[in-house]
Specification:
424 residues; mainly alpha; two-stranded antiparallel sheet
């Protein structure tokens, strides 16, 4: 929980320090097993490591991390102290700290991306339902804060849906390409090749490459050449999360405006004590939308930090630029889960006042059909006015139905199984 970031508990253990520690141990275990399988380490070195470390070890490891600039040095010392014989001797051999840190971060990111995509699927199901239910719910379209032309709320929901679909595509691209990091001291695998040669293996380079690939597949990641100074996998994941934040922020922005008392066309889900004020008892603040907008505003600078770091890398492994990534990624990832959960709740219980939408549109009927009148004067035909203009709102919706169908169809192509589960 956090007093400074309300709702932070929604992220649970995802990309927490305990989860990150567990991920580093998974990397060490996968590498140890892979070197045994490749014949580089003896069979006696194979052993499970998960039970050797717990969240209780986080404070001590964190306290010692400053001395080496990262937590891996202390973790390796801790694990070796709790192991015996060949496992203790062969643990971490051939890896460097960045291999463990990067791969553990990727594992944490994978869990976050999976969770965010689950939330996007739930959000999409809600929006498909709203788009279909309100296909003919006429409302005032607004541009630059002013009444423009009539639209339907179904079209607005479909537009929101398209943003989520874009985000899902970006997330899937980033998720499927997340790689393990295995490069050794300077990205050459020299130590692994050297150990394989000393162990008498006929193809030491092939053995080293096999160990690296096996580590990746064991962890459910993509095998890849070392990327110590090419940070595209991390910036791509961050950018995908920001794409989702953009979509959520756009939705939340619309909802905050349409819940204003003078508009009153939408309302957030009701909840015990939600939206209250410390001094004004009449208020019902759109607090979910406010908190989602908060994330949408804060997320891009975190991704910008990663791009700045990526452009600042030097040599075969960097100083400082690598270190600044960790907290920025963890913060962006956890906050993304929080905002995703809040958006799912927001859309799942969104209340639509179709009658209020219609009344507002009819009250502005003449203005909303001003464009139509200008076209009528240009092309020729009958000009609508007064009550006829109000009735004409339904006849000046352009391709709204087709646009709704297109957005829904595209969503079904992305979320085939998930949308069907919700009956959409």
């Amino acid at each position: 929980m956090s007093l400074l970031w309300p709702g932070e508990e929604r992220a649970g253990d995802l990309f927490s320090e305990a989860a990150y520690l567990a991920a580093m141990v998974r990397v060490e275990e996968a590498w140890l097993a892979a070197t045994v399988s490749a014949g580089i380490a003896p069979e006696e070195a194979r052993t499970p490591l998960a039970g050797l470390v717990s969240p209780d070890d986080v404070p001590a490891l964190a306290d010692g991390a400053e001395a080496g600039g990262n937590p891996v040095i202390g973790l390796v010392k801790l694990l070796r102290g709790r192991l015996e014989g060949e496992p203790a001797r062969w643990l971490h051999k051939g890896l460097t700290s960045q291999d463990v840190v990067d791969t553990a971060i990727v594992l944490c990111l994978a869990d976050v991306l999976d969770r965010v995509e689950e939330e996007l699927a739930a959000q999409a199901a809600s929006l498909v339902g709203l788009a279909r239910e309100h296909r003919a719910t006429v409302m005032a379209g607004r541009t630059l804060t002013q009444h423009a032309v009539p639209i339907t709320f179904g079209l607005k929901a479909a537009t929101w849906l398209s943003g989520l679909t874009d985000a899902a595509e970006a997330l899937r691209r980033a998720r499927t390409s997340l790689p393990a990091q295995v490069g050794g001291a300077a990205g050459t695998l020299a130590a692994v090749v050297g150990m394989a040669r000393l162990r008498g293996l006929g193809e030491p380079v092939a053995a080293a490459e096999t160990a690296a690939a096996t580590t990746a597949t064991t962890l459910g990641l993509t095998p890849r050449a070392p990327w110590h100074t090419n940070r595209a996998p991390l910036t791509a994941a961050a950018d995908a999360l920001v794409t989702a934040a953009d979509a959520w922020g756009r939705i939340a922005g619309d909802i905050t405006l349409l819940t204003r008392p003078e508009i009153g066309e939408l309302a957030e889900p009701a909840g015990e004590g939600r939206g209250g004020s410390s001094t004004m008892p009449h208020k019902s603040n759109p607090v979910l939308s406010v908190l989602v907008r908060r994330h949408a505003l804060a997320a891009p600078p975190l991704a910008a930090t990663l791009h700045t770091a990526a452009a600042s890398y030097v040599d075969e492994r960097p100083d400082g630029a690598w270190h600044v990534e960790w907290e920025a990624l963890a913060t962006l990832a956890r906050r993304s889960v929080v905002a995703a959960s809040q958006t799912t709740e927001l859309l799942g219980g969104l209340r639509v006042d179709a009658a209020r939408m219609r009344a507002t549109a009819e009250g502005a009927g003449a203005d909303l059909l001003a464009e139509q009148r200008s076209l009528t004067g240009f092309v020729g035909g009958e000009i609508l006015a007064g009550s006829e203009a109000a009735a004409g709102l339904d006849d000046y919706l352009g391709a709204a139905d087709t646009l709704i169908d297109s957005a829904v169809t595209r969503a079904h192509e992305i979320w085939k199984t998930e949308l069907r589960k919700d009956g959409s």
